[in-house]
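Encoded backbone
================
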Amino acid sequence: MDKSTRLGFALTGSFCNHRAALDVMRTLAGNWDLVPILSFRAAETDTRFGSAADLLAEVGSIAGRPPVTTIAEAERFGPSDPLDALLICPCTGNTLAKLAHGITDTPVTMAAKAHLRTDRPLLVALASNDAMSANLGNLGTLFNRKNVWFVPMRQDDPRGKPHSLVADFTRVPEALAAMAEGRQLLPLFLI
């Protein structure tokens, strides 16, 4: 990709994975025109992993523009101001469920809805403690949805969190390249 290719980079509230997501954002910043989008939780919640204000500042610094933090701002990513691709990194189980059921109540889900309605590609970097329990059906639904792709993932703690799946964030650039070729990066489930 070149710097003229617009990539929406959406972060949701998987706070323990924000550091890895920001590392991905830094890696992609040299090759993409990044448009950051934050869910309400990511943009407003202070946690033991950092403050919301620090996250907003860091995301804006990496992308070279302030992040989209409202539903009204995110709606423009349909036909009027399309992105070339959209990445949700990390994508929580909550956001995954909303995507599977067409619920549009955050800036990230609105960006995804607007983006997908123009048949543009969406890449999901999942980070969910219930991916293989309550969210398994939603995962299956999105596996079969047109223009939705996934970053390869693994169980991050099979004994302590047997239902959890987390994307291998280091594989995001490779997954984006595969998605641009119209294929899912495989294997999807890593050991």
